[in-house]
Each structure stands twice: as structure tokens, then as C-alpha cells.
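Hi R.,

Here's the chain you asked about this morning:
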Amino acid sequence: MIVFVDDDRIYIKNYLEELSENYVVHHEYSIDRAFEFIIDNSENIELLVLDMMMPSGDLLKDKDNDNGRRTGNLFIEELKKKIDLTLFPIIIFTHVNIQNLPAIVIGVKIQKLQKEDFTPYQFSLKIKEIITPQYK
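And the predicted structure, written out as C-alpha cells:
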């Protein structure tokens, strides 16, 4: 299963539809719901796709998320406290300039992809490359 965490309901619709043709995709708009879902289903997750800029939700309300710009990083840090994040790869899929992204949590396999660089079809090919065993 691919877990896609992004508060955008419009822009990523085509990405979700494209991925759903070949994979089971679970989409969460809220990091609070996503956090619980990922913890409860970590053994069934093949890939986590995470936006960088999102509302902080209750999970991160007391953290300095730089007006949402660090939500993705902080979310990964919180997940790392609860589950083994080496169980599945993580993609940061964002509009934020990748070169300007802050350092990502050490010890976690993460790829950063710019949303503007991938059509839904191209993104699905990249996902296949990442989670298909022959490519590992």
C-alpha cells in the first residue's frame, strides 16, 4: 500500500488516480489522521509520499514548523519515535524548492521530488522504480 499525505485536495487528484490504477493508495489530508494510520498500518506500507508544507494539526501544534514549511520534517521526526522508518521508503513530494529544503531526519531513506517536475504518469513510473523489487 502507498500512503499519500498531502493537504491539497485538487492538485494531487490526478496523481492519486494514476497511482490507483496499479497500487492500493491511501490518501490522508490531515497529518493527525495520517500519523495514526501509518502507526497502525506500518507493516503494510510499501511507500510513504509526503508533502512538505502542510498545516501542523494537533500533532505538531507545539512545534516550530515555520508556518507549515517544516511540517513534513517534523512529521517524520514524530513518526521515527513510534515506528521503524526503514520499513518503507519515503518520498517528499513538494512544491517547495528542493534545494531550499531543510535537512531531513538522519537515518531515514528519503527522496525529494519536485511536484512540477512530474506528470502523474511520470510520477507513477518513478514510484514503480522505487517499490518494485527488481529495481531495489
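The beta strands are 2-5, 25-28, 47-50, 90-94, 110-114.

Let me know if you need anything else.
M.
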